[in-house]
Design goal:
Length: 267
């Protein structure tokens, strides 16, 4: 049977990325790579294996859609004897022309560790002259950027503010200040004598009310108003004295407390 005519594979992408040549595999292996002709005449691809050095290919998988950097098929090596094998993938067009890629040798070993997962990216492509120039320019720019001096910023620690004066707090064990008799000079300059203890004035009982019954027709009042006024005056006089004394004592205490607070904040 004659082979199909050759095909131009310049636009095709056909390769096996995993497993790579020299790999040791066992069990089921996901074979990844690409099978694309780069045009609308793609019909199918075929993934096959053979014993290394022989031309007896066995189909692993057939696909009807192009694959670019994906899984081409799953290769079950459980029924194969240990040894070296070859893999190939063919991308076939409508005229039965194809482009193919090979990987050999691949060693099947039952007691080996399972193979790593297949890569998802195609193998590295050799850079063209324009790509190499771009990479060189990028490296030059990076080196120039690395030579730029890094500015040095010196930070100044924040200033520490000290209070003008520290007042000692009152201790619970300190006895309260004793209030003694003192002469406090008010702002107006008039001294107020504050006694240590004010005596309670004795109240003089008021005279009992007297009433005089007059005959009808007399012009005098039925009560003795003069005696009532004298009794009220005698009763109110001690209260008035005590009230004035209390006002003076309270004023003296407020002035004394104000002086103590002023001295505590300024000493």
């Amino acid at each position: 049977m004659a082979s199909p005519p050759a095909r131009d594979c310049s636009a095709a992408t056909v390769y096996i990325g995993f497993p790579q040549a020299g790999s040791v595999v066992n069990g089921t292996v996901a074979v990844s790579g690409a099978a694309s002709l780069g045009g609308a005449d793609f019909q199918r691809y075929a993934l096959e294996f053979s014993t290394a050095g022989l031309d007896s290919w066995v189909i692993i998988a057939v696909g009807r859609q192009p694959v670019n950097g994906g899984v081409l098929g799953v290769w079950n090596t459980n029924s194969l004897p240990d040894g070296n094998y070859s893999l190939r993938v063919r991308a076939i067009d409508r005229a039965a022309q194809y482009c193919e890629g090979f990987v050999s040798p691949i060693q099947v070993q039952k007691n080996s560790a399972p193979p790593p997962p297949p890569p998802t990216q195609p193998p590295a492509v050799q850079p063209t002259q324009s790509t190499a120039n771009n990479n060189q320019n990028s490296n030059n720019n990076n080196q120039a950027a690395s030579r730029v001096p890094t500015p040095f910023f010196q930070t100044t620690p924040p200033a520490t503010f000290q209070p003008f004066a520290t007042l000692a707090p009152l201790q619970p064990s300190d006895p309260p200040p004793a209030i003694v008799a003192a002469t406090v000079a008010p702002i107006s300059g008039i001294a107020i004598n504050v006694p240590a203890q004010a005596s309670t004035p004795e109240l003089t009982p008021a005279a009992p009310f007297t009433s005089t019954v007059r005959n009808v027709g007399q012009s005098s009042l039925p009560f003795d108003l003069s005696s009532i006024g004298d009794s009220l005056g005698e009763a109110v006089a001690p209260l008035r004295t005590s009230f004035l004394l209390g006002v003076q004592l309270t004023a003296g205490l407020f002035i004394l407390l104000g002086a103590i607070v002023f001295l505590r904040h300024n000493l």
